[in-house]
Amino acid sequence: MRALAFILLLPLAACGGGNNAPAPQPAQNQPAAVKRDDSANQKRARELYDKAQEHFTRGDYVGAVPLLEQACELAPGDWEVQARLGHAYERVRRFAEARAQFMLAAKLAEGDERVELEGRAAHCSHVLADEAYKRGEDKLALEHLRDAVKLRPAEAEISMLLGYVQQRRKEYAEAESAFRLAADLFTDARRRDAMFWLGQAQFAQEKYEETLETYTTLINERMTSNDIYGWRAYCHHLLGNREEARRDFEKAGEYATTPEKRKEYADAAAALAREGD
Predict the structure, then answer these.
(1) Residues 6+ apart with CB under 8 A from 42
(2) Which CATH superfamily is domain 41-121 in?
(3) For the domain 206-277, what is the CATH code?
(4) Which residue ranges make up each domain of the chain?
(5) pLDDT tens digits for range 165-205
(6) The pTM is what?
(7) Which of 128, 72, 129, 150 is nearest to 104 (CA)?
(8) Alpha-carbon dihedral 260, 265, 268, 272, rounded to 10 degrees
């Protein structure tokens, strides 16, 4: 009986004490792990990089792309190789891929190189935003611009486009902030454009005194385009400055570029003159 009991216990012992765990399997002969030769890969990546540079020299950016893609696979930690692929993507207008590539390279680089690569990524986001804006896809444009602002919070062109998008979305307070920043950052003729649109955002919020101040600054700087006198005339009129409004409407008529605008301003000036009689 004791021998029989021992025999009956054997299956339980083989199954791990009855806990349904699988019985341990004998070790299998596993192939040795293949060790990558990093130095060989790096050398091959540089060879491909140099070939891609030859394509760049000839202006053949399309031909450079597959070479650099191979090089990036072989040398994932080489920021120069990764960045060059970003430049190739940028030249063939694959801006979303270029941005991602520049960001990858920036994480590997340091110092001035990182700053430069982040700037390239911001530029790609700006281009993508501009293309979306021109297609009327303002929500997508805004997403790209937010990416750009994270990298370059004080870039005049980015702030200007952000203002345009927000103005069209009727987010006037946000547009005002964007145009104000652009006006502060621009040092050329674009500053006047930013100032004009700053006034437009203020006017849309019924901030007529602030609009008046903005457009007076531009007029004092001898700006006569964009119906600037007409806009200031309407501000004066809405603030109850009847005589100032009449004079500006007359001045606006002198600089009007269409017969319709010229008539609009002449009629407004005449109406105010009659009110004063």
Answers:
(1) 74, 75, 78
(2) Tetratricopeptide repeat domain (1.25.40.10)
(3) 1.25.40
(4) 41-121, 206-277
(5) 999 999 999 999 999 999 999 999 899 999 999 999 999 99
(6) 0.82
(7) 72
(8) -160
